[in-house]
From TrEMBL:
Coiled coil: none
Organism: Slackia faecicanis
Gene Ontology cellular-component annotations: cytoplasm
GO MF terms held by the record: bis(5'-nucleosyl)-tetraphosphatase (symmetrical) activity; phosphatase activity
InterPro entries, alphabetized: Ap4A_hydrolase (IPR050126), Calcineurin-like_PHP (IPR004843), Metallo-depent_PP-like (IPR029052), Ser/Thr-sp_prot-phosphatase (IPR006186)
Lineage: Bacteria, Bacillati, Actinomycetota, Coriobacteriia, Eggerthellales
Pfam families from the UniProt entry: Metallophos
Protein name (Swiss-Prot/TrEMBL): Serine/threonine protein phosphatase
């Protein structure tokens, strides 16, 4: 039995498919844990969401998808639209080149949105986009709303998008603010914790301080960082934990 993890797919379906070739769930008990940030940056956010939903149907109970800060942002821009049209600016800045919107809208609806934007009808473009996402892809949006913040295993492991409040000790489950799970900085790098903490969010190049590094990085204490910055590297490193040996493997380890 093995536990696989990957993170920060960010709309890149081809590197995701390549990474999946390193994952074997055929024994019915191995697990794949995805650490969030499925959308934005790459061209195929909707395809990534639907692929993960499909995997969960294909391998019931074996595929765990957590939420990242980009899921929080996506829900925020969908939910804020009807109440605060002033948010349009933030939406346009956050979804660079509107790639995520484009993946949800398809060609015709996106052409209409672009047309509205060219005529500087920002609010109409925003409403059209969010309406379309909420009605045509209601199942995906509902699925995103239910994504958990962390996942624990029986092997003393915590998987999350960004991190947990380790200073809270045993109380980390209730002591960690939601925004820490999805967005905290790697404060505890190099420090020992009673659990192994496996996180994405911060690129391994940044956290390791090794220029050009895009593999998995272990801090020598309790932390595995697995965001290989796909937008730059073109690939998604897969962490594998082998139950029989109690060891981790993957690119860079
Ligand atoms: Mn993130």
């Amino acid at each position: 039995m093995a536990i696989y993890a990957m993170s920060d797919i960010h709309g890149f379906i081809e590197p995701f498919e390549e990474a999946l070739t390193h994952v074997d769930l055929s024994d019915g008990t191995s697990r794949l844990i995805l650490l969030g940030d499925y959308c934005d940056r790459g061209p195929a956010s909707l395809d990534v969401y639907r692929r993960i939903m499909g995997l969960q149907e294909e391998f019931p109970g074996q595929v765990i998808a957590l939420r990242g800060n980009h899921e929080e942002m996506l829900l925020e821009y969908i939910d804020i639209a009807p109440v605060d049209l002033g948010f349009t600016q933030g939406w346009i800045l956050a979804d660079v080149n509107l790639k995520t919107a484009q993946s949800f809208l398809g060609e015709d609806a996106f052409a209409e949105v672009k047309h509205l934007l060219m005529r500087r009808k920002f609010e109409d473009a925003y409403l059209l986009t969010t309406d379309y996402m909420k009605t045509r892809h209601a199942d995906v949006i509902r699925w995103i709303r239910r994504l958990p913040y962390y996942y624990e295993t029986e092997f003393n492991q915590v998987f999350c998008h960004a991190g947990i409040d380790e200073e809270a000790g045993d109380l980390w489950r209730i002591g960690t603010p939601k925004e820490y799970f999805t967005s905290m900085s790697p404060y505890y790098t190099g420090k020992h914790f009673e659990f192994d903490v496996i996180a994405g969010h911060i690129s391994t190049e940044f956290v390791s301080e090794i220029p050009g590094y895009h593999d998995i990085w272990f801090d020598g204490a309790s932390h595995y960082y697995i965001d290989g910055q796909t937008v730059t590297s073109g690939r998604i490193p897969v962490l594998k934990y082998d139950e029989a040996t109690g060891t981790y493997s993957g690119p860079g380890l």
